[in-house]
Design a protein that fits this description.
- The chain is built from 13 helices and 10 strands.
- A hairpin with a 2-residue loop joins strand 4 and strand 5.
- It has a 10-stranded antiparallel sheet.
- With 420 residues, it is α+β, with helices and mostly antiparallel strands.
- The longest helix has 37 residues.
- The relative contact order is 0.15.
């Protein structure tokens, strides 16, 4: 795949930049050490009934941060588990009344109001989506203010509510255009975020456009839009019958199932093409956004290629499939031997408990594999392919005196936003 030019649609009219040839950023963490840390975190989280997870997150972030080296100097994570816990409790106090009110409101909507419950649900989920955007910005602010390099902190100014308004309005436009406006959503939110981010007193900026990114997004959307169009064309007669049934006052469930059974779902197979192409777009988008970013006028460049990302996911899914297959065969074989040798019958309650243990273990192992294979590999790849035009300029940055948020991620944690 041809790499994206560093001046691709960024609107910069300057001369070709000379990018520092040395490995400016790299990741040197070891998977074995991280796996041991994750296992200890699991034991401590289980033994404390989940309370330790805030400190577990802090320890994992500390590991990842200190193994990202900029000019051979590590980043430093300054957050604490106590801050995350306090932020989470604040968010729970805020969200609990909102959820309670929502559970009671449907009973207060008069049946005479057409689509009253649907309107109420739209308002609720719209509010929830807005809060998610607020949480995204606040989690970025917290993590940046708790990240330092050579004693200089990163920071994020601006308003979380303004960011949420930008994201929500562009999100509505994306829904109204069946997903076509998604690149404008990404560029608009990135521009606001970068325009308010800083390293000490040196500010970031963003000079990216959207046209070239939109053309790449069309490559992803075209198979899905074609699938929907073909589905309606092929199933026009069946859809007409179904519409008549829905308008029939004596409509019954079995009639709906019989009508839906006549659908031809083959055209929807084109959606798989979009799923396969989507990682390519995300890599292109990442390069586009990074190449359009500036730190104090200093140009950044990402050389990440989609082939490496596909390779990472291929290894991951091969490992997961192989582990799942061999584990299932092993568990089934052991159970067969135990039942055969002991002559015992399977107790449904014990079988259910055993199934829950197996499912829980599988879920944790899946998360462990994803972290060690996918997350670490992509982090290392992003670092190894990142260049800075004049990295020495970062050393001249002085510490900003801006105030820091006093507690953790709160709403983001309560809504499970943001991963590590």
């Amino acid at each position: 795949m041809e790499p994206l030019n560093m001046h691709d649609d960024v609107g910069a009219a300057g001369v070709e930049a000379t990018v520092h040839p040395a490995p400016v950023v790299f990741f040197d963490g070891r998977r074995g050490e991280l796996a041991g840390l994750l296992f200890r975190n699991l034991l401590l989280t289980l033994s404390t009934l989940g309370i330790y997870r805030f400190w577990a997150k802090t320890r994992v972030r500390g590991f990842l941060w200190r193994h990202v080296r900029l000019l051979d100097e590590p980043l430093e994570y300054l957050g604490t588990g106590t801050e995350l816990l306090i932020g989470f409790l604040i968010a729970v106090v805020f969200i609990a009344p909102l959820t309670t009110v929502y559970s009671w409101l449907p009973s207060l909507v008069p049946q005479s109001v057409p689509y009253g419950v649907l309107i109420l649900q739209a308002v609720y989920y719209g509010t929830l989506g807005f809060l998610v955007q607020v949480a995204v910005y606040r989690v970025r602010r917290y993590r940046l203010t708790r990240t330092a390099w050579r004693g200089v902190r990163f920071g994020l100014d601006g308003s979380a509510f303004r960011y949420a308004l930008i994201g929500s309005l562009h999100g509505l436009a994306t829904l109204a255009t069946a997903g076509l406006a998604y690149p404008w959503l990404r560029v608009a939110t990135t521009r606001y975020f970068a325009g308010n981010a800083r390293f000490g007193t040196t500010r970031f900026s963003f000079e990216g456009g959207t046209v070239r990114l939109f053309l790449r997004w069309l490559v992803v959307m075209a198979p899905t839009l074609a699938a929907v169009l073909l589905f309606f064309l092929v199933n026009e007669e069946a859809l007409t019958v179904l519409w008549k049934l829905l308008r029939d006052p004596e409509f019954e469930g079995p009639s709906f199932i019989a009508a839906a059974g006549r659908f031809n779902f083959a055209p929807l197979g084109l959606v798989l093409v979009s799923a396969v192409v989507f990682p390519w777009y995300r890599v292109s988008e990442f390069r586009h956004l990074v190449n359009a970013a500036r730190i104090g006028g200093n140009r950044l460049q990402s050389r990440m290629d989609a082939g490496s990302v596909y390779g990472v996911y291929l290894v991951f899914y091969i490992c997961v499939f192989s582990a799942a297959l061999f584990s299932a065969l092993g568990v089934f074989g052991v159970l067969q031997i135990i039942i055969k040798e002991s002559g015992l019958t399977v107790n449904p309650a014990l079988g259910f408990i055993f199934g829950l243990l197996v499912a829980g273990s599988g879920y944790w192992l899946y998360g462990l594999a994803r972290t060690l294979i996918v997350d670490v590999s992509l982090l290392a790849l992003a670092c190894d392919t990142l260049s800075v035009q004049e990295p020495e300029a970062l050393e001249r940055t002085v510490q900003s005196a801006a105030s820091l948020p006093g507690h953790g991620e709160g709403l983001a944690d309560a809504l499970d936003v943001g991963g590590f």
